[in-house]
Design brief:
Two copies of one chain form a homodimer. Chain A is mostly helical. Chain A is about 60% helix and about 5% strand. Chain A has a three-stranded antiparallel beta sheet. Chain A binds a DNA duplex through helix 2.
Chain lengths: ~130, ~130
DNA sequence: CTCTGACTTGAAGCGTGGTTCAAGTCAAGG
DNA sequence: CCTTGACTTGAACCACGCTTCAAGTCAGAG
């Protein structure tokens, strides 16, 4: 029923050292110990999936810790989330342009990539 | 006609220290010197815009340096770019899910955010 | 009961991307 | 000519997110 750290590491794809690191930062907690050894409830895997995903979206470990503790009355955090959603949208736009530019770049024939107008278009400049 | 480092810094939004850092890494070069002082051609601003954008898309400084030197016969690099484009697509999907989850989270009423099914749905698990 | 080896800890180390610092140089202005 | 102050350098430092290490512990096998 309980998992030990090696099992959690394997099933989550994270290193044991990373799990201890997350614990120190308050993102996860073991269900208990067997001697010195951490034992985890299986649902820690869900939490780790969430953490990994959030990390991938550019959240810092400290931010994720806040999210995991959030309750509906934490309006500051709610606002922060709406903020993040907006920022993500900008990121998405930027990445989309970048992806298109790269697709072109992979086949473009300009001697110096930097000179290619299609490539340059990636960088919609405001100035 | 030529810009000095302070001007480039201001107009690019980057710190002078960052410009020197990029130079050391081969991303930019001054047009010359006035005494010890770097002087830049105005088009360095385009290049810096590109660099900033690429950084924002998650490229490392080392990768960007390679891009900037790329010629059409660097097929290894071309393949790498196609690769990057694919990865960006995955990133875009992930960020999109994350954005939707956050939008919901900002208004959801679950006592503990982590318990909200709509929030959890952000983390499409493969296992 | 003893051994083994996977776990435990805190501290140090690493790669990335810069910033900050001390010490020095030099173009321009008075 | 001398001062000023923005530039120059290399080296040290920072934050982040871990990983690695040395030294120690302890559950379970023999």
């Amino acid at each position: 029923m309980l998992l030990d750290i090696a099992e959690v590491a394997e099933r989550s794809g994270l290193a044991p050292s990373a799990l201890r690191f997350y614990e120190k930062r308050g993102l996860i907690a073991p269900a208990g110990r067997n001697g010195l050894r951490r034992t985890y409830q299986p649902d820690v895997l869900d939490r780790l999936a969430l953490i990994t995903c959030a990390r991938g979206a550019g959240f810092t470990v400290a931010e994720i810790a806040r999210f995991l503790l959030a309750t509906p009355d934490d309006s500051e955090l709610r606002a922060g989330m709406a903020d993040k959603a907006r920022k993500l949208e900008e990121d998405i736009d930027r990445l989309t342009r970048m992806r298109d530019g790269l697709r072109h770049a992979a086949t473009c024939t300009h001697t110096l990539l930097v000179e290619c107008p299609d490539f340059k278009q990636m960088f919609a400049r405001s100035t």
